[in-house]
Amino acid sequence: MRDRLTRLLGTALVAGGLALGAGAARAETSLEFYYPVAVGGPITKIVDGMVADFEKGHPDIKVKPIYAGSYQDTITKVLTAIKGGDVPQLSVILSVDMFTLIDEDAIVPYESLVKTEADKAWLKGFYPAFMENSQTGGKTWGIPFQRSTVVMYWNKEAFKEAGLDPETPPQTWDELVAFGKKLTKKDASGNVTRWGVQIPSSGFPYWLFQALTTQNDVRLMNGDGTETHFDDPKVVEALQYWVDLSRKWQIHAPGIVEWGTTPKDFFEGKTAIMWTTTGNLTNVRKNAPFPFGVAMLPEHARRGTPTGGGNFYIFKKSTPEQKAAALTFIEWMTSPERAAQWGIETGYVAVSPAAWETPEMKAYVKDFPPAAVARDQLQYAFAELSTHDNQRVTKALNDGLQAALTGAKTPAEAMKDSQAEAKRILRAYQ
Questions:
Q1: Which residues form the signal peptide (predicted)?
Q2: Contacts with 402 (C-beta within 8 Å, 6 or more apart), sequence order
Q3: What's the pTM?
Q4: Rounded distance, CA 78 to CA 86, Å?
Q5: I want to staple 272 with a disulfide (CB 3.0 to 4.6 A). Which of 158, 247, 293, 338 is the partner?
Q6: Based on the structure, what is the number of domains in the chain?
């Protein structure tokens, strides 16, 4: 009798164990997370570390980062996956791809997922400038994470050598030209060994150009993503200024300047000033072999920069459990403490005012004041160029910019042609 009871008890325990095991398996939610690696520095190690920390505090959620290449590679892989039915649950993709993802019916608005008052407060906690590229039609489609602005870096040693105050960067377009003339250096044969300024025109030429158009107080598109203004006289004037930096004033390298090698050129003294993403801030801090400064971009009609960088998106084909888990992960990654950590370790702009109030961020800014430049510049920022069919519209603008910078077309011709192509592409959305 005792043996029979023992056997029954054992069977019950095994069955119970199996049931618990099945319940545990159901309770664990797995997420695939596409992440773009597009900017210098040990970004993947930072992401891996943050994911590991998240999983320690959330043992029921497993997150697998998949490093998908550049931003362009990432959106291409996501769109391919959507067509093949093998979509990740969440991804960091450029904020400007919001309309494309909506048009593909690929993502869900966050309002459909937030439930609690704490969730709603979190959704309202980001800088308004970043939300311009995150919301449309009264809904929030992306959550700011890897966000940036364009900032100006300068070599203080080069300034001192040129007889300029090493603590005072150029404040206006006219000053940029005047400083650039003093900073541009030639050898005995007349060959330039150091340019005054470098604004990269490969990779993201439209983004750097949008810094100039913002400073000339003109927007490249409407808020609905259905119209562009590439041939506006103020846009043409901004492009003429960029062209003149090399052609007329000869303080900027002619032709196309590479995005990826611009920081290296800065480190090697080939340019005294560079414009690039604040996402390169940590890279510059670690690798510049000279004292450097970071400043807001120079003004013309106004001060200004576009915002930039990537947002978190949650994909529609995820299960309800995966969507809930993805929201938990994104809330954790953008919490004040984590946003501060991300900003400190990468140079990207911490995306909420609360992140800048953390003890860690306050100590960081006190020790390294340039970290606050991009945040302070947000008050002058416009949304980055974003439209329906954004890849093709952006290419139309990039092609025009490069035609003007290489001398194939005048700025007016280039922008007229870019506008005609963008108008043709967007006709279906008007």
A1: 1-27
A2: 201, 205, 256
A3: 0.87
A4: 9
A5: 158
A6: 2
Contacts 24+ apart (CB under 8 A), 285-289: 285/347, 285/368, 286/41, 287/263, 288/155
Angle between helical axes of 320-333 and 43-57 (0-180°, round to 10): 120
- Residue 14: the pLDDT is 40
User: Which of the two residues, 264 and 6, has the higher pLDDT score?
Assistant: 264
Provide the pLDDT for residue 61: 98
**Tokens encoding 51:** 């994911």
- 30 lies in a domain? yes
For tokens 């005012």, the residue is: 353
105: left (phi > 0), else alpha (psi -120 to 50), else beta? left
Write out the residue range of the structural domain in which residue 56 sits.
8-147+309-368
DSSP state of 225: S
pLDDT in tens, 61-77: 999 999 988 888 999 99
Q: Is residue 1 one of the residues assigned to a domain?
A: no
**What pLDDT was estimated at residue 27?**
65
- E-assigned strand segments in 187-248: 192-198
